[in-house]
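2024-03-11 09:14:02 INFO receiving multi-entity request
2024-03-11 09:14:02 INFO entity count = two
2024-03-11 09:14:03 INFO echoing inputs for audit
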Amino acid sequence: MGWAIALHGGAGDIPLSLPLERRVPREATLRRCLSLGIAALKANQPPLDVVELVVRELENCPHFNAGRGSVLTTNGTVEMEACIMDGNTKSCGAVSGVSTVVNPISLARLVMEKTPHIYLGFDGAEAFAREQCVETVETGHFITQENVERLRQAKEANRVQIDYTQPSHGDTPPQPTSADNGDSQIGTVGCVAVDGKGNLAAATSTGGLVNKMVGRIGDTPVIGAGTYANTFCAVSATGKGEFIIRATVARDVAALMEYKGLSMKEAAAYVINSVPKCHAGLVAVSANGEVAMPFNTKGMFRACATEDGYSEIGIWDTEVEHNFIDLKS
Amino acid sequence: MGGWAITIHGGAGVDPNLPMERQEQAKAVLGRCLEIGIAALRSGAAAVDVAELVVRELETDPVFNSGRGSALTALGTVEMEASIMDGRHRRIGAVSGLSTVKNPVSLARLVMDKSPHSYLAFSGAEDFARAQGVETVDNSYFITEENVGMLKLAKEANSILFDYRVPLENTCGTSAGSVVTMDSGMQMNGLPISIYAPETVGCAVVDSQGWCAAATSTGGLMNKMTGRIGDSPLIGAGTYACNLCAVSCTGEGEAIIRGTLARDVAALMEYKGLGLQEAVDYVINERLDEGKAGLIAVSNRGEVAYGFNTIGMFRGSATENGFMEVGIWE
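2024-03-11 09:21:47 INFO inference complete, emitting structure
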């Protein structure tokens, strides 16, 4: 028992050769957000508030694909989505197609608390944001030069594929070019937390997929796919959205505990193994303070900490920074 | 192998005072759509094709709340949503926020077959519809006179229910007249049952090869906020199919989403070893909390099942061995 927190900044084909300028700021953000979450849990903030707080910080970081730093649609626009869920009440809120809201996760929280609905999308979500007076900005705020370049490269890769590799590529999604360092499709952010009383919450936020069609909805805002929490566990998933939706990844971790009696670690591993290789990762915490962070991709930006003093920040399987620090002071 | 089976619904949560004439009309539509599905299955059609075909028919008929006859948003517009899932390879397609597409379920099918994504919404979904050349019509095509009247009543009832918290029958006797009779105080989604538009449509099919598929389509909730997304397009909530079963849900969308109702029927079979009807009963009893909903399901062995905790669900089912049933009440 005890509190626990885990967060992620996306899973995918992260090359071991990831340049330092892409790696260092992300690790620093993970570390900073982890500390923030730990401090909030120590101050007895409810897990629902903690996951919102941490995801807001991750959204504000331009190096992850959520909030500022969101990847661009095929039209060069930003369409963000987010979802939050409380384990005890199974209350939840979600938004899609948000283009001016600084912190989509907080809008999702407002949908949960201030509307009779769970999920608002596009113009209706924007109108609701204005009605609730949340902070909004010009959509240009979210667009980084790096993502403009990623979109250009994705379009080029797409065109090359369509023009020159006709025969067998009907269903193959465009592959990232070597020039974009393989990290263009990742960077969704999420956080799960549990307090010492076993209260659980999960939150996930994303800009989606580079070069996505306008109007595309991924797994992040779909309850049971990218985000889920109940009294057993809280889960936030990341990866290829279409695969995560069809495998109902987040709900299945909980369902395996509930219906098959698996431990959370077993359940999380089982679900990740059931998704095709290189497609998904997740972070999860259980009611009694366990943490799991499995992925079947090359890497996943992730961090976690538990009340007994364990903490971890990592990207790949091999290079994990383990820390056993005394957090009880 | 148990042979083919099909089950359909036209929504859960029926006004017990629904005029007999409307009941007969609904049953006739259910019977006709069921026959279309049966004929297709007999001719060897695949489950996913049959689910799409039958839901198209249900959408096209104005009796139910999907396609033509969809419920209206608070602004008086129509925003339709639909999803389809093929249990074979668990392929999926979904759409939300459609305002001109005549058959939303077929656009969901095209998202599944022709786009790199599995879910498109609002203007992006409309653009995709145009790019695919599907049949579109003016938004007014979907808006029926009856639903314009219902929206007006819903707004009146809402302002009464939410603003003043006084019993409806004491205040709206003259304005709402005979339609709003709150004798039972029955409500769904914060609306009196007589105004609540329950008639989401759905279909679950297993074909003679044992492949399962499900499809669901809806206009959503009467007087909903624009942009509101319900359970129907959400895989695992309103719709789910895998190699074991296919499920389509209807009712209070928010409760269905929280309960991941459709996936849980399958998860109970997969992870707990329950039979189809047991799994259906379990989710209705244990996964809805206070919510009101119903669902239909088929298994890969050719069984059909349904469950609901509302008063009534428009439904029908048939199996290869000659069983056929159309019903509304328990």
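2024-03-11 09:21:48 INFO post-check: The longest helix of chain A spans residues 20-42.
2024-03-11 09:21:48 INFO post-check: Chain A touches chain B through 45 residues (CB under 8 Å).
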